[in-house]
């Protein structure tokens, strides 16, 4: 089969690779139909993710068709259309029972990172019964790829962790795919206002189209001053950091209202300053977590009912044979108009 393989810092290759085989009776082999590229894949390509070693097939997002279920797989049969979670989970260990699938003790593999991923014609999915989801009848399977990672991330790590409620004021720092997924899922909770902050005017325009009440270009103006002006000098009840640099986590601490909550979603390669005196003095909370994909079944029901439009984040479509080109296009375009690239295999 053809697979996109990490060859070491800065190098990727679309090359022939053996088709994965069942290793455990709980595995399933899935034929991948749609995949996409994530900002994390770019970090991997640049050699910034030490858990990924040369030879790894990349990709942690995908929709496909079950090719071969293992003997112990009971929820799926050959031919079933499935959404693939970005992480695998057993659903029965102590952490899984607490909803912390990312800490599953029976593997807890991250596709395209600690396990071969979805940028390939076939992928082996361990613990298939709890790591795959049936595709609801009649939904757009292309759009569904957004549910492998970025929508559960925006919802779980951003919206739920920052405790968005009806009437909340929400600030989202970062209008990349994750920040925009947080924007779209925060609207499910009827906040009174959503302010999106970025320094890329094109991404801010997209945020506005997706329902942000206010946009702030922090490259041109002080986000703190602008947010205080919009909130009668109070700040926001919920602040979602969806960038992953020290400066934006520090900014988030200046935007939150007394009693409010900051949800750090970004993956920070470096230490960040905690303004602990400010957090303490104003009863602020700071939360952070890995995505667990526990909300995916709810998102699937919502999508099937027409309550959310994840396909709005797809800006480019390419065939799998142009996968190497897709990376360079995505890399070049990441600072401009590209959000999510849909790859058809
Ligand atoms: P992205 O790089 O596509 O988007 C980041 C956005 O932040 C861009 O629009 C960029 O213009 C903006 N930005 C960058 N620097 C800024 C600054 N100083 N001020 C204001 N805006 C700035 O990233 P993404 O794919 O949307 O992911 C966002 C973050 O979420 C990343 O750190 C990613 O690693 C992380 N993530 C976390 C989890 C988790 O489990 N917690 C899962 C997936 C992704
Ligand atoms: Zn588990």
TrEMBL record:
It comes from Exophiala viscosa. PROSITE patterns: ADH_ZINC. Pfam families: ADH_N, ADH_zinc_N. The keyword Lipoprotein does not apply. The keyword Ligase does not apply. One of its GO terms (molecular function) is oxidoreductase activity. Keywords: Metal-binding, Oxidoreductase, Zinc. Its cofactor is Zn(2+). InterPro entries: ADH-like_C, ADH-like_N, ADH_Zn_CS, ER, GroES-like_sf, NAD(P)-bd_dom_sf. Belongs to the zinc-containing alcohol dehydrogenase family. This is Alcohol dehydrogenase.
């Amino acid at each position: 089969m053809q697979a996109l393989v990490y060859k070491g810092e800065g190098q990727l290759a679309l090359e022939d690779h053996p088709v994965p085989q069942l290793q455990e009776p709980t595995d399933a082999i899935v034929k991948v139909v749609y995949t996409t590229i994530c900002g994390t894949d770019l970090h991997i390509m640049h050699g910034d993710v030490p858990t990924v070693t040369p030879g790894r097939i990349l990709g942690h997002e995908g929709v496909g068709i079950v090719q071969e279920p293992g003997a112990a797989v009971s929820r799926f049969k050959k031919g079933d259309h499935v959404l693939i979670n970005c992480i695998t989970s057993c659903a029965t260990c102590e952490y899984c029972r607490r909803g912390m699938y990312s800490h599953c003790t029976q593997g807890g593999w991250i596709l395209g990172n600690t396990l071969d991923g979805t940028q390939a014609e076939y992928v082996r999915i361990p613990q298939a019964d709890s790591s795959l989801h049936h595709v609801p009848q009649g939904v757009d399977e292309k759009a569904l790829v957004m549910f492998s990672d970025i929508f559960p991330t925006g919802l779980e790590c951003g919206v739920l962790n920052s405790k968005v409620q009806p009437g909340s004021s929400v600030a989202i720092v970062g209008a990349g795919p994750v920040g925009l997924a947080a924007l779209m899922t925060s609207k499910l909770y009827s906040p009174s206002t959503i302010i999106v902050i970025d320094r890329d005017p094109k991404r801010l325009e997209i945020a506005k189209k997706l329902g942000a009440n206010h946009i702030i270009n922090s490259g041109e103006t002080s986000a703190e001053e602008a947010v205080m002006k919009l909130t009668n000098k109070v700040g926001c009840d919920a602040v979602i950091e969806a960038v992953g640099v020290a400066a934006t986590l520090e900014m988030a601490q200046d935007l939150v209202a007394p009693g409010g909550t900051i949800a750090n979603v970004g993956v920070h390669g470096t230490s960040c300053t905690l303004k602990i005196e400010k957090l303490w003095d104003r009863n602020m909370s700071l939360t952070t977590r890995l995505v667990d994909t526990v909300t995916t079944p709810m998102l699937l029901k919502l999508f099937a009912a027409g309550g959310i439009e994840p396909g709005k984040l797809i800006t480019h479509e390419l065939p799998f044979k142009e996968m190497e080109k897709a990376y360079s296009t995505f890399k070049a375009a990441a600072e401009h108009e590209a959000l999510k690239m849909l790859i058809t295999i």
